[in-house]
Design a protein that fits this description.
The chain is α/β, with parallel strands linked by helices. The chain is 40% helix and 14% strand. α1 packs across α8, α3 packs parallel to α4 and α4 runs parallel beside α6. It binds 1,4-dihydronicotinamide adenine dinucleotide (NAI). The site of 1,4-dihydronicotinamide adenine dinucleotide has 33 residues, from α1, α4 and β6.
Length: 339
């Protein structure tokens, strides 16, 4: 696979990369290195532009290829180089490198990270953004369609995070972003492969957030909605007009900034709306009779189905396993005391 490396440093211009348009202190990324996968177009391109404009050294990775992941940089236009050119023309002193390998292979992931380390000396930010679609209803979905979508989204994000991990641990600093989707959170017709991979990323992010804490590595997941090649035939034109991918970038940049301490979060950005998800759990129903192994156990579940499922004032927001377990143990204790 061809490895394309560009290193752009403007020689002449001394002006600042970007100037704050208002009086408040601009949140900048000077001295930080960001790797952004799939940054040759769409959302990834916006992240690259915004971070470069605020002083970050950016490694733009993009394999190229079509929306289904076929083709690649050797066959089609080199999307990563185009974004590097765009940054160079807007901010001549920006430091940018490119790589056009697929994130689906561990050697490639290692090389992408090595490229950033060789050129910039460190890796502070990893935005796992590369993505493809192979939509088909479940009955018609081939194993290849399943595997390939998982390889890019879930395996690719795993490989890239793994390749960055030891460097981030060593420098005691890291910001990782996973990219999920409403298709994962809610399901979507024709996207069994994509939904499963996107929900898998939420689990991966939750665990990396826990494991990263002792090394000052944060990991958060975003759920974007934006007009891009991926959505051009899905979103109605009037909706697409409101969903400029540039609007997603500020949320991602904030999560990658050193002032942001959030970790293990799940955030949505769509148009100019930003929000957060949390898991909610019902108060549930304790059924002491079941522990004696009564043979009406299934009937007991059926009888109390409403209490098990109903969200009321006893429902809780669960944002950690610790909170989950504490709540469970309190419930069991209450029952023991009531005997
Ligand atoms: P896009 O199709 O415009 O950009 C994706 C980029 O990833 C492409 O440039 C493509 O060449 C690159 N890519 C694909 N496979 C790759 C690989 N193996 N290695 C390296 N690069 C690869 O899509 P968009 O909309 O910008 O999506 C970015 C991310 O956001 C994706 O993960 C997508 O699933 C996710 N997303 C997008 C939504 C939207 O509304 N646009 C909604 C929910 C999630």
């Amino acid at each position: 696979m061809r490895l394309c490396i560009r290193y752009l440093i403007g020689q002449t211009s001394q002006r600042c990369l970007a100037t704050a348009s208002t009086n408040h202190q601009q949140l900048r990324f000077d001295g930080r290195t960001a790797i952004i996968t799939g940054a040759g177009r769409g959302l990834g391109r916006e992240y690259a532009l915004l971070l470069a404009s605020r002083g970050a050294q950016v490694l733009i990775n993009d394999f190229g290829g079509d929306r289904s992941g076929k083709g690649g940089a050797d066959l089609l236009e080199n999307a990563a180089e185009k974004v590097a050119d765009e940054i160079a023309s807007k901010w001549p002193e920006a430091k940018v490198a490119t790589n056009c390998e697929s994130v689906t292979y561990s050697d490639n992931a290692r090389r992408i990270v090595e490229t950033a380390l060789d050129k910039f000396g460190r890796v502070d930010i990893l935005i796992n953004n590369a993505g493809i679609l192979r939509d088909r209803s479940f009955g018609k979905m081939s194993l290849d369609d399943w595997d390939h979508v998982h390889a890019v989204h879930l395996r690719g994000s795993y490989l890239m995070s793994k390749a960055c991990w030891s460097h981030m641990c060593k420098q005691q600093y890291g910001k990782i972003i996973m990219t999920s989707s409403t298709s994962g959170l809610y399901g979507n017709f024709g996207q069994a492969n994509y939904s499963a991979a996107k929900m898998g990323l939420v689990g991966l992010s939750n665990t990396l957030a826990i494991e990263g804490q002792r090394n000052n590595i944060t990991c958060n997941t975003i759920v974007p909605m934006a007009a891009s090649r991926m959505t051009h035939d899905i979103l109605p034109e009037d909706v697409a007009k409101k969903l400029n991918p540039a609007y997603v970038a500020p949320l991602v940049a904030w999560l990658c900034h050193e002032n942001c301490t959030e970790t293990g979060g799940l955030f949505e950005a769509a148009g100019q709306w930003y929000g957060r998800y949390k898991l909610q759990r019902t108060g549930g129903q304790y059924l002491p009779g079941l522990r004696e192994g009564n043979d009406d156990s299934v009937e007991q579940i059926s009888k109390h189905w409403r209490e098990i499922c109903h969200f009321d004032q006893r429902s809780i927001q669960v944002d950690s396993f610790h909170k989950h377990l504490t709540h469970l143990l309190q419930t069991l204790e209450t029952d023991d005391n009531s005997k």
